[in-house]
Amino acid sequence: MDQTALGDEGKTRCRWAAAEVEFPHYHDTEWGFPVDDDTKLFEKICLEGFQSGLSWRTILVKRENFRAAFAGFDIDKIAAFGDADVERLLKDAGIVRHRGKIVSTINNAKRAQEMRRQYGSLGAFFWKYEPDPVEHGKRGTVSTTPESVQLSKDLKKLGWSFVGPTTVYAFMQAMGMVNDHGADCFVRGQCQVARATFERPRAS
């Protein structure tokens, strides 16, 4: 099936971007563009974890609520959350009220603190798993890759949770580690330029 579709304004986008009214802006300005900021990376991997079993639209429309509930995804602030915060979040109708995912986010913030101490930044750790673009381009449409499987395994060894291979691959797509925009998508070239000029973070 064709990966792209022509939008009302005459722009060809990835077909999934036409599924919901909230998707085009996210698709055009975020998805696939490289990220190295720790707060943004932590937000993205947490939201992908919350999305597990749900639609991405459910998460996207609640994103501002998530940011308010989780202190702007400030890693240190979330790591300090306690039982009272869990109960507070379980009563927050603006987010996904799933105890396991809420507790996981707090746990992962603590693991993120450890990762920063060891590697200097989350970006320095995550970008080690970037696949070769040429080899990745031969794979077509996939939901996991050898790199996402390995990253998932390594995160779990470090104590992270809700980071299965499919969730991790969606995170890799969202953070721009891979450029999975369709060949005819008008954003693909923009992501290619951004990735070409992006300085990969390295462990300090």
From TrEMBL:
SUPFAM superfamilies xrefs: DNA-glycosylase (SSF48150)
Name of this chain's protein: DNA-3-methyladenine glycosylase I
Membrane-spanning ranges: none
InterPro entries: Adenine_glyco, DNA-3mA_glycosylase, DNA_glycosylase
Naturally occurring in which organism (per UniProt): Lacibacterium aquatile
Domain of life: Bacteria
Taxonomic path: Bacteria, Pseudomonadati, Pseudomonadota, Alphaproteobacteria, Rhodospirillales
Pfam families: Adenine_glyco (PF03352)
